[in-house]
Structures are given as C-alpha cells and as structure tokens.
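May I ask you for just one protein sequence along with its backbone structure tokens in two labelled lines?

_____
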Amino acid sequence: MKPRKPSGGAARGLPPFSAQAFLDSSGIAKTLVEYERGASIFTQGDACEDVLYIQTGGVKLSVLSKTGREAVVAMLGPGDFFGEGCLAGQAVRMGSATALTPSVILLVGKEKMVRLLHQQHAMSDRFIAHMLSRNIRIEEDLIDQLFNSSEKRLARTLLLLARYGKQDKPARAVPKVSQATLAEMVGTTRSRVNFFLNKFKRLGFIDYNGENPLKINNSLLSVVLHD
C-alpha cells in the first residue's frame, strides 16, 4: 500500500495547515512539557483533559489488552496532534502515549481548545481536515496489518517513521526505535524484523549498522508497491 502524502487542507483548496501557527495565533494559555525517550506522556485510563501537539520528537500510541498484551496503533511525529478524544467527550484515555525520542509536547486544555475552535472557524476547518488526514492514515495502518505480509508492513512502517513525502530528500533518518518496538508495530517477531532489516540493507534500501540512526532510501517504496 503506497503511503499517501498528508493532505492537510490543500486538497480542499485551502493553504497547507500549520498547526504551530494555529496555536500561536490563538493567544490562549498553553503548557510546554519536555519528555525523555521512553517517558510516559499519558497512560490508558488517565483522565482525558488536554489536546496534545508534538512540537519536536516522536510519540507512540498503544493500547493494552486485559491480558496485558500491547498493540501499537500509531506512530506520530512533529506537527501531529493527539489526545483529541477529549473534544468528543472521552472522560479517560483509551490508550497510552510514550515518547519515542526526546520530545517537546504542547498541551492545550480541553475547554480552551473547544473555545478556540469555535472562535476561529477558518482555522477549525483546517484542524478538522488535518485530523481526518491522520485518522485515514491510522485506518490504512489497520488495513496494512490485516492484509499485507510482515515484510511489506515493516517497509511501510519505516517509510512512515521517516515521514515519507514530507521532505524532499533521497534518504531520511528514522527516530531510534528498537527492533522489539518495530516488531510490536508490525505484528511479527524481533527475529523477523532483524531478518528483513538485513535484507533491506543488502538491497540498498536502507543504511543500517545497528548503532547509528537508520536511514531510509526512497527505493524502499518498491517493497510496498510490489505485488
């Protein structure tokens, strides 16, 4: 499945949505919090009181089953909102959020965010388009999980982590993520992830030595597109 470029508001004839400009222009009180790699931003069952925005870094969203098994449902990066369920009346967090890398997260209180969206209609339209685009991507992740091979799922996951389509660069670094975490995201074993990473390296799709940040070459897309 081919990763899609984020649509933002452009598909509707609107200028590209800048979440940072949106929040900066509002004049409402915001809180900036820094998280170390691996730190918990919120936990499943916590009170749902803020909308969060990733200024820098990366975030893993996951859900824990009653048997204690964790499923990774999304990997987000700079410019992404999360925790927006509070705007729809969610009282508690339906999943957990963990910092993948050192991250700076901006928190906006639920009531303040609702007031902002009501006051700035043009910007709220872009915010909604932005969130719909992200939700479509998460749905594509689910379809990918159900129907594609683990090799294709890993390739697509790496492309998304590298923010494919957001930068005009031949190679992009992926935030440092363990093979165990990649295995959770893809729905396979760590040994299979290691096997495919070595295969991608041998074919020139990635630059990887196990220590430095993994770099993704555009040619990795051929694995996703290959039937």
